[in-house]
């Protein structure tokens, strides 16, 4: 019974954890099975980069989805999704500098000169680092209003990550374009006037589907609402005591 109650409360979080850890599990499995193409390092770089980007876009989608659907629970997913995006981006970076270039600063410097798009990825990762560090409740309290300001950097990190992807793709830019378009829609939905208009629309729609007090009274056999409220209040009054 307790397990069912727990699952009912946490199923969304659980789905995020399982979904975010699945690509890593699959990657480790494919690595142990020697199933990572003829260039495993490149395959790991590509897979971790792709998952990092998907999770970053999902993080940015939480608030607009809350505005449009009015689903409050979705807001609690921002932190785990953001942290998983950071985890995959860090792995992506470590594979590049560690496995690909054996932590050799000269080789890494040469690679950056050759592949300039790496700089945009690096900038995105650098922006995500303070956000991951300050994602705890303690940091939230310590930074106060500045916490929200600092965490706005996630938009910039998203834009840089998409540009990094667009730049590195040589011919077919359809896939990076899909991420770019998705990100653009999410950013537009966050603009204060757009956000206000969407949430007004949402409230109006919600009000239309909520039965009005009069309708409730008419459709059921109960006493009219105002009268029933008065009766309830009268019942709550302490009984008169005679001296
Ligand atoms: C938030 C940070 C980052 C994100 C979201 C990201 C995302 C991506 C994506 C989506 C790809 C293409 C995957 C594919 O084609 O399937 C990619 C490729 C790549 N990224 Fe990143 N990246 C990030 C940071 C970095 C950093 C810090 C570095 C290196 C210092 C880096 C180096 C590379 C390289 C070298 C490739 C190309 C691999 C190849 O074609 O062989 N990225 N990244």
Through-space gap between termini: 54 Å
Query: How does the major sheet shape up?
Result: none
* Helicity, as a percent range: over 70%
- Structural classification: mainly alpha
Radius of gyration: 26 Å
Mean of residue pLDDT values = 88
What percentage of the residues does DSSP assign to strands (E)?
under 5%
Principal-axis shape equals: globular
Count of structural domains: 2
Oligomer: single chain
Describe the structure.
The structure is a single chain. This protein has 243 residues and is an all-alpha fold. It is 80% helix and 0% strand. The longest helix is centred in the N-terminal third of the chain and has 31 residues. The termini are far apart. Bound molecules: protoporphyrin IX containing FE (HEM).
Outline of this structure?
By secondary structure, this protein is mainly α.
Q: Which key terms come to mind for this protein?
A:
single chain, globular
Record the SSE blueprint.
Blueprint: H1 2-32, H2 40-69, H3 78-100, H4 105-114, H5 117-133, H6 137-143, H7 145-151, H8 153-168, H9 174-190, H10 192-209, H11 213-219, H12 225-236
The structure holds protoporphyrin IX containing FE (HEM).
Protoporphyrin IX containing FE binds next to α2, α3, α5 and α8.
């Amino acid at each position: 019974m307790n397990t069912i109650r727990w699952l009912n409360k946490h199923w969304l979080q659980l789905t995020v954890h399982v979904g975010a850890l699945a690509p890593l599990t699959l990657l480790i499995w494919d690595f142990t099975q020697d199933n990572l193409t003829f260039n495993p390092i490149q395959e790991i770089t590509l897979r971790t980069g792709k998952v990092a980007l998907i999770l970053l876009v999902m993080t940015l989608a939480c608030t607009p989805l809350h505005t449009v659907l009015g689903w409050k629970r979705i807001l609690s997913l921002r932190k785990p999704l953001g942290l998983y995006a950071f985890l995959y981006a860090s792995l992506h970076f470590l594979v590049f500098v560690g496995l690909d270039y054996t932590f050799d600063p000269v080789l890494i410097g040469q690679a950056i000169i050759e592949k300039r798009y790496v700089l945009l990825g690096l900038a995105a990762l650098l922006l995500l680092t303070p956000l991951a560090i300050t994602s705890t409740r303690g940091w939230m309290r310590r930074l106060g209003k500045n916490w929200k300001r600092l965490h706005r950097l996630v938009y910039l990190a998203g834009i840089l990550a998409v540009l990094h992807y667009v730049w590195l793709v040589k011919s077919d830019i359809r896939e990076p374009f899909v991420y770019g378009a998705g990100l653009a829609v999410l950013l537009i939905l966050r603009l204060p006037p757009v956000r206000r208009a969407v949430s007004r629309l949402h409230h109006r729609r919600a009000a239309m589907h909520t039965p009005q007090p009069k309708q409730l009274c008419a459709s059921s056999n109960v006493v009219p609402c105002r009268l029933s409220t008065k009766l309830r209040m009268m019942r709550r009054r302490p009984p008169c005591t005679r001296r």
